[in-house]
Design goal:
270 residues; 5-stranded antiparallel beta sheet
Length: 270
């Protein structure tokens, strides 16, 4: 945080201008301060900072009242102005002015959120500082071609393709590579069981597995068995299932049959 101290006053003036620009009746009561949470005063004469502050903002007939403790509003010691001063020292030098401006901006931002939005003043440390750190982070370079090539399964491959859309990294050549790789995975031609590590079983699971398969199932599994084989299309045949081939009644007749019946009826009537 290295903005100039004058930017704080400019921000409050901008908040007031935006509130008035809405056309609503705007009334800002003076900020009040307290040392015990019970007695409030608009004039702070103590050399120590107040315990908390409050303010009321009127938008037409709607009153917005906000409270803020000093400990939650004062900037941290690492927050600096553009000329190298600490914001916390500036707040300590003029406590009522700083926290009064802070709580007024907060109330205006709540009452006129549609006009003010997410604006922040230089001494509002939380959001701008996070946004600045995110903005200055180096972008992560992703080798999307390698990501498509090295995706271990269809689910991860689809996730890579979705991330490429978010990153706007899709292209015609990559779409061809993605579809080709996915089709090969579905056919089971890309990953075989021989490329996968054997699952680790507990002693109890091992006993049940050998009892079920009559030995170690990995020994009887073909090395080239696909990782995700596509089952053959099931044909429901009554004869193959041992059931008699029952001829089903055909209640619906083709249109040409109905036309023929009409023609025959006309011939009989004539």
């Amino acid at each position: 945080m290295t903005e100039n101290i004058d930017d704080v006053a400019q921000t409050l003036a901008e908040y007031e201008r935006l509130a008035i620009k809405t056309g609503a009746k705007v009334q800002i009561e003076p900020a009040e301060f307290t040392a015990d949470g019970e007695t409030w005063t608009p004039l702070w004469l103590s050399n120590d900072h107040p315990l908390a502050a409050r303010v009321r903002v009127h938008r037409d007939d709607i009153v917005t009242e906000r409270f803020v403790p000093w400990a939650e509003a004062v900037p941290t010691e690492s927050a600096m102005t553009s000329d190298g001063r600490r914001w916390c020292d500036l707040w300590a030098a003029r406590p009522s002015l700083r926290i009064g401006s802070y709580i007024t901006r907060m109330a205006l931002g709540t009452a006129f959120r549609d006009a003010i939005g997410d604006r922040r003043a230089p001494d509002d440390e939380d959001v701008p500082d996070i946004a600045r750190r995110v903005k200055t982070q180096e972008p992560v370079e992703v080798d999307w071609d390698a990501a498509i090539e090295n995706a271990p399964n269809v689910v991860d491959l689809d996730r890579v393709w979705a991330d490429m859309r978010t990153a706007r990294a899709r292209s015609g050549a990559r779409e061809v590579a993605y579809k080709t790789r996915r089709a090969a995975m579905v056919r089971g031609e890309w990953v075989t069981s021989g490329d996968l590590p054997a699952p680790e079983l507990s002693p109890e699971e091992g006993i049940r597995s050998r009892a079920f398969f009559g030995g170690d199932p990995a020994e009887n599994m073909p090395a080239d068995m696909p990782f995700a084989p596509v089952p053959a299309r099931h044909v429901d045949s009554g004869a193959s299932a041992g059931r008699p081939d029952i001829r089903r009644p055909q209640d619906h007749k083709p249109p040409q049959n109905r036309a023929a019946r009409r023609a025959s009826k006309k011939g009989r009537r004539s």
